[in-house]
Design goal:
Helix content: 10-25%
Mean pLDDT: 86
Shape: globular
Largest sheet: 14 strands, mixed
Strand content: 35-45%
Radius of gyration: 18 Å
Number of strands: 16
Oligomer: single chain
Length: about 300
């Protein structure tokens, strides 16, 4: 197993410094400030005017990121999305965690869906008309078949049912996943832990984690955006031993022969809005790359 430790430095801009100060100011030993929706200074655009639809809490989360060639990602994107780049590269992320606190607005918790592991394979994109940055998911594996069905139906996301395990062991997390009901099992096995130190909050960390919407498409090729909101990510330095990672292989993607950049987050509460269709005012091809938006 290859061991990798996050050690990223970057130029810290005023907005990124502000995000770090904001995060430290609203965290406490018992969790986060309760009025998360009132804390919006760190967002790149305002909260949606429509009501949020769902809340979740993400726990023991590992970000593992690799730089990849733009051309390798561009051909796998829906029409209307462009590769978002940092230092001339596209970035591919594998993100294991477990979630709880799942609740739809106005409804009590649904029995059997309130706590389960999730594992996603993601990259970073911009919508061509608005240039808004977001996340594009290749796959999301979850251990709860009802949650998989609901997410596919209502959020049009590529969820898969998987046999998953999350164990707290030797001061860290032992994580495993095997996709079910598919020809290729897409297995993942890793051990990871926080190093107990706050991670640097540079330009790369901001690029990889501070994303406030996701993009997805349906069978007709229509593009949708889903807004999310949370406090700035409380990132810590991390180390990991990734023994098996077949997620990229399932989509014909190849990771570079280098160690990933790693970050760990203990817990984060997230608000999710309903999907909205993105207007296709102009036709583009996915192979083109938009310039990055100006620094806010």
């Amino acid at each position: 197993m290859a061991e990798a430790t996050a050690s990223v430095s970057g130029i810290v801009g005023n907005r990124i410094r502000h995000s770090g100060q904001l995060l430290r100011g609203i965290q406490s030993g018992n969790g986060f400030h309760p009025d998360i929706l009132a804390t919006t200074e760190h967002r790149p655009w305002p909260l949606p005017r429509s009501p949020w639809a769902m809340t979740q809490q993400w726990n023991d989360l590992l970000f593992a990121h690799w730089p990849v060639q733009v051309a390798d990602i561009a051909g796998h994107l829906p029409q209307g999305l462009a590769v978002d780049t940092f230092d001339g590269y596209a970035w591919l992320g594998v993100v294991p965690f477990w979630m709880d606190g799942i609740r739809f607005r106005g409804l009590p918790p649904i029995p059997g869906t309130s706590r389960f592991p999730e594992l996603n394979l993601r990259t970073y994109v911009r919508e061509r008309n608005s240039n808004l940055a977001g996340v594009y998911f290749y796959s999301l594996d979850a251990a709860n078949p009802l949650a998989v069905s609901v997410a596919r139906a209502f959020f049009k996301l590529p969820y898969y049912w998987a046999r998953m395990g999350v164990r707290h062991q030797e001061g860290g997390i032992r994580y495993s996943s095997k996709r079910l009901l598919v020809k290729e099992p897409a297995r993942f096995e890793a051990k990871y832990r926080s190093l107990g130190r706050e991670a640097a909050r540079g330009d790369l960390e901001h690029f990889l984690t501070e994303r406030y919407c996701l993009y997805t498409s349906d069978a007709r090729g229509l593009l949708y955006r889903g807004n999310i909101h949370h406090l700035p990510w409380p990132l810590e330095e991390a180390e990991a031993e990734i023994g098996l990672n077949e997620l990229p292989d399932a989509f014909g993607l190849r990771l570079p022969e280098r160690e990933p950049i790693l970050h760990y987050s203990r817990t984060l509460k997230v608000y999710v809005w309903p999907l909205e269709q993105v207007s296709a005012m102009a036709k583009h091809t996915a192979a083109q790359v938009l310039p990055a938006a100006e620094t806010l």
